[in-house]
Write a structure and sequence with these properties.
heterodimer, A: about 475 residues, alpha+beta, Arc Repressor Mutant, subunit A, 3 domains, 9-stranded mixed sheet, 15 helices, B: about 500 residues, alpha/beta, Amidase signature (AS) enzymes, 11-stranded mixed sheet, about 10% strand
Chain lengths: ~475, ~500
């Protein structure tokens, strides 16, 4: 039988607000245990939450950018369960009236453009984390992450392949980065995906029984978990078995999913409206204000780069794929570097270094200012393009100042006309055969002579000047 | 010293300001009286040293002219569910034994700024769940008028202390009548203000959508003076309202001419003890004699108020009390194997019977499959109750009802029949469900010499009108000035 895989995604995104959702503690990642918390986020008796307006703004922006309807009257609800990382024993979330609903996200796959529907987007608070100490055989609670704001974006079951899921996550990440609402670091957990997956015979209308996959900490894990789980479910069904509704944990080391809990032991979260927070009413003016100040997203920016700077479509596409690259590009331009030059450097040398050194664009040390300075050195004729490439390579990892580097390594071009002329003369004397070849119409010999001059100048010659002097002397002789 | 104890809070405040009495003298007198009335078990924690230090501080501030608040230097007490920095705050529950919050409630900050001298923490029903102060982990408080009777609850310790003259006022909390009913049982005046007018920051929650703090004191004027200090917007409480505060005391004219006083017929029928009904209606006549107009009203929702209240309050409580799990503070079971075992044993040992009953009731009302039938339905009825009040207040300015169907029951009577105890909340809970202000004032005594209370209910933010009517009543009557000793009660 042929099977179709049906997938829906729940994505938790940590918002990049400075302070937590209900108190003024910092949201900074890390920190010694229990130093980023206060009586409010640790749920001490008698304390009360007060909603951080920035969280609402970021959630609304994310809702708008994913094509959602914004709920003008939304509410918070309590999700009740006991766990030591949840000091109030309930998580403040939104069940009945989430901040945004009914959106859609389009993305490119190899099979063309695809659209998935967004069921809802809601705000909630993160929990703390437990640290197990195997030596002392005890568990400690760290509440630093308690109250860090999250949005959860829930899709309809519109995905059919892992490729689509990956493309969606990358697009979603780009959207959120463009908005500046999250840093979307999967490794640090600021973007986490749960996959809901079921299979059904091709052509069937009804959905199969799904399992929910958790602990997916990278795109690679998502892809492998989907492939594994799809195969597992098909095997179960083909052997005449029944898929049970359950939550399964992906194990990166074992490359497999394992059952965590079945629907039968699913908890009853006893959701009810959070009485400590008044309903959230958003005015039309407020929404209009956010709508009109939404940042320029990838598509619009790509079009603008093509129109404004004359970049080819594929170049504009590559730069706008990542917000970190866009920021780099625009900052370099703001420092006066020509768009075309910056783009060429980025798509050539920079991309190569990122790939070879396996660095993410947003984590690279090199600053736009340093690249702009490098470009300026070429324009000023102080180094040639070849040397510049070597300098780029050398400073990429630690962002050493290019001017200092060039000076320290004596890489400046030789601009002493007399010295260049002397060198050319010497090279011509040393290679009479090549001179003859050139004069007999062998153009290739000219290139060889240029190379020899450059070599004699230890690569620091100005190619244009060498050309000129060489030509003059050859023609004269 | 007897004279000093007989002053109202405002009179004492004025005497302190005139330099006739020092805050230290007042605190010492109160501590002495507390010792005399110890058997009432009104206080669960006495902070005598802190009180005397504090009295000195206020004295100095007064001498420098730094504080002008009318109650500066007047000794008072906090219900034990109000967070006081560094001082045990236990909600009279074993599960919070040893818990001393590292922060003050907003009301504490505000009253201390106004020169309050706190004597300690007052007994209460465990987590404010109860109508008698018998569910306290520290044992029941007793009614100063007759120690065989309860002082009411849940702010029973505060009511008993004020009635017994061991403090001049107390801050209590009222979720379904917990200020008004003990005030009635103890013959004092108590106010539950409009929901959102007093910050709940630092009040350990029972039912968040209904909880509200307020004063228990010897007169409506004293209550007004306290409310002037504690009402008003607090950025730490998202449900607090942006209201003008500080004008209540100055607004007490005693003039009730032309005021329409609504008498809901349904509140004077079946289940109400006739002595209580008579005394409350007599209070209506007193107000009429000062120019108020009496208006008969229908109040259609009375059959639903108690079940609606107990579903909503218990549901919220089941969630609010989940944090007491033995992990972070308070009681932790000594022996346990697993995490679940830790939770179960801690909560089994830490909570009393009534609290467990309400947690179970609330968990059930919120559970999958029952939410719509109970909690959601209760919220709908809550909306209807609000509407019924809106309609009623189109025909009147204030409503007058009994506070409770009876006077204070004997110790032990109520807990054996919780349903009966719940039903006795019938006159007070609708006020919380509608978020309105309510006031309890003494209006007589039954044959056994126990006080009877009358309740005034105002429209939202109608505190001024409500306090003024009570003040008018107290200008005509002397029930509020009586103390147990004068009528053969225990306090001396």
């Amino acid at each position: 039988m042929n099977w179709e895989t049906v997938i829906g995604l729940e994505t938790h995104v940590e918002l990049a607000t400075k302070t937590k959702i209900f108190c003024s503690c910092t949201t900074e990642f890390g920190g010694a245990p229990n130093t980023h918390c206060c009586p409010v986020c640790t749920g001490m008796p008698g304390t009360l939450p007060v909603l951080n307006g920035k969280v609402v703004e970021y959630a609304v922006r994310a809702g708008l950018a994913t094509g959602c309807r914004i709920t003008r009257y939304s509410k918070f609800d309590r999700k009740n369960y006991f766990y030591p990382d949840l000091p109030k024993a309930y998580q403040v979330s939104q069940l009945y009236l989430p901040i945004a609903r009914d959106g859609a996200v389009a993305f490119q796959t190899e099979a063309g453009e695809k659209m998935v529907r967004i069921h809802e987007l809601h705000m909630e608070e993160d929990a703390g984390k437990l640290v197990h100490d195997p030596w002392l055989d005890l568990t400690r609670a760290d509440y630093n992450r308690c109250g860090v704001p999250l949005i959860e974006i829930v899709t309809e079951p519109d995905f059919r392949t892992a490729d689509e899921v990956i493309a969606y996550v990358e697009t979603l990440r780009s959207i959120l980065e463009y908005l500046g609402v999250s840093d979307c670091k999967m490794q640090e957990g600021s973007l986490r995906c749960d996959v809901n997956l079921s299979v059904r015979p091709v052509g069937a209308k009804e959905l199969g029984t799904r399992s929910e996959l958790k602990n997916l900490n990278s795109l690679k894990a998502i892809r492998r978990a989907i492939e594994y789980e799809k195969t597992r479910q098909i095997e179960v069904l083909e052997e005449g078995g029944r898929v049970i509704q359950e939550t399964r944990r992906w194990d990166d080391n074992k490359d497999a999913t394992f059952s965590m809990r079945s629907k039968e032991d699913a908890q009853d979260y006893r959701y009810f409206p959070e009485p400590d927070l008044p309903p959230l009413r958003l005015s039309e003016e407020y929404l209009a204000g956010l709508r009109s100040s939404q940042p320029e997203m990838a598509g619009a920016r790509k079009a603008r780069y093509m129109a404004q700077f004359g970049l080819p479509a594929c170049d504009a596409e590559q730069i706008t794929r990542e917000k970190a690259l866009v920021d780099f590009f625009e900052e370099a331009l703001a420092l006066g570097a020509p768009a075309k030059e910056v783009s060429n450097w980025m798509l050539g040398d920079l991309m190569r270094r990122l790939k070879d050194e396996d660095v993410e664009a947003r984590r690279m040390a090199l600053t736009p200012g340093n690249l702009a300075a490098l470009i300026q050195l070429i324009e000023d004729g102080r180094i040639n393009r070849n040397t510049a490439s070597k300098v780029f390579r050398a400073v990429f990892a630690d962002n050493t100042d290019v001017v200092e580097y060039v000076t320290a390594h004596g890489l400046e071009q030789i601009r002493d006309a007399g010295f260049v002329s002397e060198t050319v003369k010497k090279v011509l004397e040393e290679h009479p055969n090549s001179v003859d070849d050139y004069r007999n119409g062998k153009e290739k010999a000219f290139g060889f002579l240029v190379g020899q001059v450059m070599k004699a100048l230890k690569g620091k010659g100005d190619p244009q000047a060498i050309h000129q002097v060489l030509k003059t002397q050859l023609d004269r002789g | 010293m007897t004279d000093l104890l007989e002053l109202t809070a405002l009179e004492l405040g004025a005497a302190i300001k005139r330099g006739e009495i020092t805050p230290t003298q007042a605190a010492e007198a109160a501590l002495e009286q507390m010792e005399e009335t110890k058997k009432d078990n009104a206080f669960v924690c006495i902070t005598a040293e802190l009180a005397l230090d504090r009295a000195k501080t206020v004295e100095a501030a007064l001498a420098r002219g730094e504080t002008r608040a009318p109650l500066a230097g007047v000794p008072m007490g906090w219900k034990d569910n109000i967070c006081t920095s560094g001082i045990p705050t236990t909600c009279a529950s074993k599960i919070l034994t040893g818990f001393a919050p590292p922060y003050d409630a907003t009301v504490v900050e505000r009253l201390e700024r106004a020169g309050a001298v706190a004597l300690g923490k007052l007994n209460m029903d465990e987590f404010a769940m109860g109508s008698t102060t018998e569910t306290s982990y520290y044992g029941p408080a007793r009614n100063p008028w007759n120690p065989d009777h309860v002082p009411g609850g849940s702010s029973g310790g505060g009511a008993a202390a004020v009635a017994a003259r061991s403090c001049w006022y107390a801050i209590g909390s009222d979720t379904g009548g917990s200020i008004r009913q003990p005030a009635a049982y103890c013959g004092i005046t108590g106010v539950k203000p409009t929901y959102g007018t007093v910050s709940r920051y630092g009040l350990i929650a029972y039912a968040s959508s209904l909880d509200q703090m307020g004063p228990l004191a010897r007169s409506a004027a004293d209550c007004a003076a306290v409310l002037d200090q504690i009402m008003g917007k607090d950025p730490r409480d998202g449900t607090s309202l942006d209201v003008e505060a500080g004008e209540l005391l100055g607004g007490l004219s005693g003039d009730v001419r032309g005021m329409k006083l609504g008498i809901p017929a349904g509140c004077f029928g079946e289940g109400l003890e006739s002595e209580v009904g008579k005394a409350v209606l007599a209070a209506a006549d007193v107000l009429r004699s000062r120019g108020a107009e009496l208006v008969e009203l229908e109040f259609p929702m009375m059959d639903y108020v108690v079940p609606t209240y107990y579903i909503i309050a218990a549901a919220e409580a089941s969630s609010n009390l989940s944090r007491y799990d033995g992990v972070k503070y308070g009681w932790r079971a000594e022996q346990y194997e697993t995490l679940t075992d830790l939770y179960q044993k801690t909560r089994t040992e830490g909570f009393g019977m009534e609290v467990k009953r309400r947690i179970l009731l609330g968990s059930f009302a919120l559970s999958a499959g029952y939410y719509d039938a109970y909690y959601k339905k209760a919220l709908q009825v809550k909306g209807l109750i609000r509407q019924a009040f809106d309609t009623a207040f189109q025909a009147c300015d204030l409503m007058l009802t009994p506070v409770a169907p009876t006077t204070a029951p004997k110790l032990g009577e109520s807990l054996s029949d919780p349903l009966k105890m719940y039903l006795s909340d019938i006159y007070t809970v609708p006020v919380n469900l509608a978020g309105l202000p309510g006031l309890s004032m003494p209006c007589g005594f039954d044959r056994a010499g126990l006080p009877i209370g009358a309740q005034l209910i105002g429209p939202a933010l109608g505190e001024g009108r409500m306090l003024n009517a009570a003040h008018a009543f107290q200008l005509e009557t002397d029930y509020h000035t009586m103390c147990p000793a004068q009528r053969g009660g225990r306090a001396k």
